[in-house]
User: What shape does this take?
Amino acid sequence: MSTDNKRVKGETVLEIRDLKIEGNSDGVWHPIVKGVDVTLKRGEVLGLIGESGAGKSTIGLAAMGFARPGCRIVGGTIMFDGIDLRKASEAQKRDLWGSRIAYVAQSAAAAFNPAHTLIDQTVETAVRHGIMTREQAEADARDLYKRLQLPKPDTIGDRFPHQVSGGQLQRAMTAMAMACRPDLIIFDEPTTALDVTTQVEVLAAMRDIVEQFNTAAIYITHDLAVVAQMADRIMVLLRGKEVEQAPTRQMLKQPTQDYTKTLWAVRKLAKEESISDDIALRVHNVDASYGGMVKVLDNVTVQLPRGRTVAVVGESGSGKSTLARAITGLLPPMKGEVYFNGKPLPKALKDRDKDTLRRIQMIYQSADTSLNPRQTIRDLIGRPIEFYHGIKGAACDRAVAELLDAIELNESYIDRLPGELSGGQKQRISIARALAAKPEIIICDEVTSALDQIVQEEILTLLMKLQKETNVSYLFITHDIATVRAISDEIVVMHQGKVVQQGPKTKVLNPPYPAYTELLLSSVPEMDPDWLTNLLAKRAKGKVKA
Amino acid sequence: MTAQAPDIRSVRARRTFWENAKRTLASAPFSAWFGMVIILIYAICAIFAPWIAPYGEADVVGKAYLPASAEFWLGTDQIGRDLFSRLIYGARNTIGIALITTMLSFLVGGTLGVLTALMRGWLDQGVSRIVDAFLAIPVLIFSLMLLAVFGKVQFFMEHRWVLLVIILGLLDSTRVFRLARATAMNVVVMDYVESAKLRGENMRWIIFREVLPNILPPLITEFGLRFCFVFLTISALSFLGVGMQPPTADWGSMLAENKTLINFPAVGFPWIRKPFYPAIAIALLTVAINFVVDWVLHKTSGLRDEH
Assistant: This one.
């Protein structure tokens, strides 16, 4: 490479002018990105935020001169350190990718090859590009592992991707991206799939390493609090256009555009808690396990009052979803009872009668997998009406139309397939399907975590409205504390299959905390750009004391 | 889409099957159209054979080995039957039996495949291991053996096609089973299947309404391909003399009966040697089905997203 590789902070490394990208759907080209300018200097981190479909990832990839299959770059220039990426040949770009421009994807688990060890994959690009010998590269990889605070940096590279945790894998992927000391890294939602407690470590590691090497970075996310920690500058995108752009602090303090203000306002949804003694469902001393020795639920007791919302929080692997499976009978408990309206429920699903099944409904995290893609909305919502209430034909269609009104869609949607709806609309259909059974309890398993924040708020508001109208109880499983604040009356904190704490919202969210609750709550990013720095300082101090 | 007056509350009727079919067909490429037209012609020949064919299936209507003429369009065979008529009847026999065979294999293999994917456990283990054992034996040799064993049964001596259908159908169902089970595996873990279980739906609903529609695209393509293989196998068996028995017209046996003519030049228009007519009929149908299958596969899989 002929270009000078000195890293001078403040020198422009990427300059995108008037970028236009089109995407193909069913043979028709639609504009996805409609004239966006990006300038990035060395050592600077630019945060790209916006809802899904705003064109964040497309712009991120375009910064590498790459368009996804089904997309094409139709206008503008992409200058990377003096090289026009739009005119560069495939071979030229291949030379840049991995060595001077790197990409960190959302799902590290999907990005790693399960058949090779971490270190093999970390050094591959550096060796392939002829930048280092294998020995040098391996030594360097171990150094990077150490800088990224991976445990046992000398030997962790010999493990396979499935032998490390999700957070560790994400850091290993960052190490892989850093292996050639690139000039530009694109982080595409790198922590979205992680628990909050893990997210803190990964964010800190990534921020650190970008600073150490003066790397320019584009950080794509829909989580405002995260971007506030990572970015020097924030660009807000809406439907392929820039809404506004400003340094992080200024952007957080005084956004100028209405759209940005609505984005900022989302996090302020809250509900007055109300306590009730009328218990609809009581999980009593339940143990459960997936056939093995390890108890996934360990002596769990949870109460769900009628017409109220109980939020179950905890990181992945804490047994939240298993609790749902134990209640629904998909995983019969080994010990303990589930009382429904005071009477014990039959443990296994097949022993429960139709009317019991009707009263407990479930809404899943991903409407993509919980709605059969081959059934129309009419069939999806109509089936429980027909199945439980025996209403057929035109009367059933009318009931479906009424439910569609209740979830703020209308009957023009009735013949659509789930694939023809947006993510938020699909989740509304899931809610309507649960409501169609006229249940007493709805178990909501991470129902908003796959959605954008604005859509999340709409769904939560809808759920609260429906609760008022039908007095249904929600068991709300989530790892998102903001959601918990917004809708719950009571909170259950779970950790490693045990209930750490159950109580009214105000009590759980305020000190004194049990140790785990404190860790969990303190790990939730806040909209304060100094939050991460302060938290790390506080935790370091705590460690020294201990 | 216009919103209707709220007081009437009559809900718009479903989009019909034909509307959907029209939309889909409008986007078919030339190769698919070619394939569909060929298949349609074959189907018409097969269904209306007695009305289309100028002569009967087994009627001796002229001298042996007559060349093509206005009277006998493709000439006559070794005992003087009209080759063109026999080709048309052959379509009926070969395609008809292949179709029934393929349907049987899909009924058995498909249902078992989805069921084992749903139930897992010992049923899955048992059926899968038996299928593995069957898959280890080459179809042609295995069916030759089975035909020899059961060919002596009185009922099958009178209705040979039933024996062919059962043997080939069951042997082929092992392959369908593999595919159905593998694709159903990916579907049964979906939340909507769990959701249907939680609703209290029975096995029939889950198999036919939740799982089957989602594995249909690969199964339909497989149906086309399996149909080709079945009908090639039937032709091969008939060529060897153990499939359809004379005087029933069948492309494989017709090929065998006329094979000596390969040594003689074709006389007059269209200068194609006689044994090639049934061979062309077999090849053309196989190619046509593959064209259509390719298109269906292209439409239903993610393939179209790769340039």
